[in-house]
Specification:
The two termini are 23 Å apart. This protein is α/β, with parallel strands linked by helices and 304 residues long. Helices cover 41% and strands 14% of the residues. It folds into two domains: 4-120 and 137-184, Nitrogenase molybdenum iron protein domain (Rossmann fold, 3-Layer(aba) Sandwich); 191-301, Rossmann fold (3-Layer(aba) Sandwich). The radius of gyration is 20 Å and the shape is globular. Helix 2 (42-52) crosses helix 5 (142-159), helix 6 runs parallel beside helix 10 (286-301) and helix 8 (229-242) packs across helix 9.
């Protein structure tokens, strides 16, 4: 179960004021009086919007349909980073954002990798590149995202103490939803015929660790890395040995490699979304996409 104490973390700070001329001291920005927050990619946007509610204005630097790792910042986005009261990032995921924060936003950023540090040696077989690199995909474990949510609530409360109670209440509501989601995953994946998931990208190590699965990945932590013929043959042989029925690919990269592997194995393909960003024109949010992922996993693994 998730700790309710997370929602009250780090509340405090200077009082807000009403005049626009003093907005920089109050933690608000613009004539709407809202706290301006810039986030690096979708899961951080989701958490901030859910906790901040009507009191924050959130700008996500990674647009829907775009792969967030290779973001190239425009001058206007550099300006947004500089003007924001808070920049929320995961150090190492977006190097250009890390550089921009160092040059333009030092001291008013939140690096969530310090909240739930990334593990190395991700839970996967098959791919060998990036084997010792930090895996940033912590948000695919709802309990880790909950820890981030608690810290975001605390920072917003420091910036805008007049609305600290609202931030705490919103964080509490989100933590309850994440607790429920965690329970759904634990129950839904408890009794399955198979416990190995074959993926095109080694993004699901935290999810696998949390729910007793093993990830067999074609490529490492970088989603657009092409596997070598040897890697393809190794994963194909393992998938056949395990009787895998599904090869998973993700939403923001080409499914061609997964389709090639599926044809070799005699399996089908399906989407398993790493939630690095929403698809362009797509609907839903973190919670609904995670539940869609759960149903895809249950079908692939033959869960009761």
């Amino acid at each position: 179960m998730l700790s309710r104490s997370l929602r009250r973390a780090a509340v405090g700070g200077a009082a807000t004021v009403l005049l626009l001329a003093l907005a920089a001291c109050s933690g608000t920005s613009g004539d709407d009086g809202k706290v301006s927050v810039v986030t690096g990619f979708y899961p951080l946007q989701f958490v901030t919007e859910r906790i901040g509610g009507d009191h924050v204005k959130v700008t996500n630097l990674a647009q829907p349909g775009a792969e967030p790792h290779d973001i190239e910042l425009k001058p206007s986005q550099i300006g947004e980073i500089s003007d924001a009261k808070l920049v929320i990032r995961f150090k190492g995921v977006q190097p250009q954002l890390d550089d921009a924060v160092g040059q333009n936003a030092a001291g008013h950023d939140l690096d969530v990798s310090t909240v739930t540090p990334p593990a190395t040696g991700a839970n996967h077989r098959g791919a060998t590149e990036d084997a010792g690199a930090p895996d940033p995909h912590v948000w695919l474990d709802p309990t880790r995202l909950a820890a981030i949510a608690g810290t975001v609530s605390g920072r917003l409360s420091q910036l805008d103490p007049d609305h600290a109670a609202d931030y705490a209440d919103n964080a509490d509501a989100l933590l309850q939803e994440l607790t429920k989601l965690d329970g759904e995953y634990a129950a839904g994946l408890k009794q399955c015929q198979r416990h190995e998931i074959v993926t095109s990208h080694a993004a699901f190590g935290y999810l696998a660790d949390r729910y007793g699965l093993t990830q067999i990945a074609l490529s490492g932590l970088t989603p657009d890395t092409e596997p070598t013929p040897q890697q393809l043959a190794t994963v194909a042989a393992e998938a056949k040995r395990l009787g895998a029925t599904t090869i998973f690919f993700e939403t923001l990269v080409s499914p061609k490699v997964a389709e090639t592997l599926a044809a070799e194995v005699g399996a089908k393909t399906a989407v398993l979304d790493p939630l690095e960003g929403l698809t362009e024109g797509g609907t839903g949010d973190y919670l609904s996409v995670m539940r869609t992922n759960l149903e895809a996993l249950r079908a692939a693994l033959g869960c009761a």
